[in-house]
Specification:
This protein is of the alpha+beta class. It has 2 helices and 9 strands, in the order H-E-E-H-E-E-E-E-E-E-E. The N terminus is likely disordered.
């Protein structure tokens, strides 16, 4: 095969790979953490949550512990489930991806609740997903495109 043909074949492969990125269009990698906020006990923030200190300090809870951490890939319309320590499951569904902004739905079937949240790349959101019970509640922190 002449050099020119090999060069053209390589250029074609490089050009095709530009149209087929590693992740499918519409797939959004998301870093999800389940955290527990408590009103009782000494004030404390789990060291793994240090980057959320400012956000958490504005809430009525004084003690924060991370109970789980997952990295999931959300595809439009497909629900991924995150399990809470009490056995319940929270569903995360990608609703829309537009540039560097993503909108997803957070749903907890047992409470019949649904919330739509929109975040930008690099922005973390803290969202309460359970009602308070015994002075504590569970929250999700979500970071799209970690």
């Amino acid at each position: 095969m002449p050099r020119r043909s090999i060069l053209l074949a390589l250029l074609a492969l490089i050009g095709l790979s530009a149209f087929h990125p590693a992740r499918a269009l519409g797939d959004v990698p998301v870093h999800v953490r389940v955290i527990k906020g408590s009103r009782q006990g000494p004030a404390h923030i789990d060291p793994r949550l240090e980057n959320l200190r400012r956000q958490l300090s504005h809430l009525a809870y004084v003690k924060w512990d991370q109970t789980d951490e997952q990295k999931v890939t959300l595809s439009r319309g497909k629900t991924e489930f995150v399990r809470l320590p009490d056995g319940e499951h929270v569903g995360l569904t990608l609703q829309e991806e537009r540039g560097t902004t993503v909108t997803f739905e957070v749903a907890l079937a047992s409470r019949n609740t649904q919330s739509r949240l929109t975040v930008e790349k690099g922005q973390r959101i803290v969202h309460q997903v359970t009602g308070e019970k015994g002075g504590s509640a569970f929250f999700l922190t979500v970071l799209a495109w970690p």
